[in-house]
Q: What sequence folds into this?
């Protein structure tokens, strides 16, 4: 099936860490992705992780992958107001078709 | 590398009219994708081109929708006899088609409003 699930909303205080969670469906997905969307804009690729990895760190972003539970998370350290956006996780089918979750709206409060 | 561009950014049309959107991929990317995003949802796959060949069309792409990529560079998406349910953001993406990481890069989208 193509049913990626994410929690819909997250509110975080500026300077704290944000953790966005996602469950995916296809254990054969080779890559899993995180995209960011600001209001009225397209999707910006944030990071991705290869399915044989458990963790990937890229500056303030840390991706954790639990293949057994098909669980993916994105941690944003030192969250800033510019991080307010919708975050989508996505898995890839057949090497070309991305399947997205409904997105998690992150609101950063002062 | 100027990224994926889409034109127009916004389109308002009346029900029953035809509309056409254009996507210019990142140069030398041989794969091009169209997705549709409705309010509060993630993007949904519509179709995919490898060079000029259209290799898959989603069941979401009814007979009123047609996509082309005639020279393997830019692509157009046409919707005939638009309906209010066609109102959405239409996103284009491109990728290099590498065997390993074939990351899709998205354009800014075309927001369609059908009155």
A:
């Amino acid at each position: 099936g193509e049913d990626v699930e994410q929690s819909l909303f997250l509110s975080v205080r500026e300077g704290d860490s944000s953790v966005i969670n996602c469950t995916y469906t296809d254990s054969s997905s080779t890559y899993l992705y995180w995209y960011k969307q600001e209001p009225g804009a397209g999707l910006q690729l944030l990071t991705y992780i290869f399915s044989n990895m458990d963790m990937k760190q890229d500056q303030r972003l840390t991706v954790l992958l639990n293949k057994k539970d098909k669980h993916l998370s994105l941690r944003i350290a030192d969250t800033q107001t510019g991080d307010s956006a919708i975050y989508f996780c996505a898995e890839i089918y057949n090497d070309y078709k991305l399947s997205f979750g409904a997105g998690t709206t992150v609101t950063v409060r002062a | 590398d100027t990224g994926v561009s889409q034109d127009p950014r916004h389109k308002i049309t009346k029900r029953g009219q035809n509309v056409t959107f254009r996507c210019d991929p990142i140069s030398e990317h041989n794969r091009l994708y169209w997705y549709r995003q409705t309010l509060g949802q993630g993007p949904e796959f519509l179709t995919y081109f490898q060079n000029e060949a259209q290799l898959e069309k989603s069941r979401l792409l009814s007979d009123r929708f047609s996509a082309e990529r005639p020279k393997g560079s830019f692509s157009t998406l046409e919707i005939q006899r638009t309906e209010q349910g066609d109102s959405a953001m239409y996103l284009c993406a491109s990728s290099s088609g590498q065997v390993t990481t074939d990351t899709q890069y998205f354009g800014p989208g075309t927001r369609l409003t059908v009155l």
Summary: The CA atoms of residues 33 and 60 of chain B lie 14 Å apart. The mean pLDDT of chain B is 93. The interface with chain A takes residues 4, 6, 31, 33, 35, 40-45, 48, 55-56, 91, 93, 95, 101-109, 111 of chain B (CB under 8 Å). The radius of gyration of chain B is 13 Å.
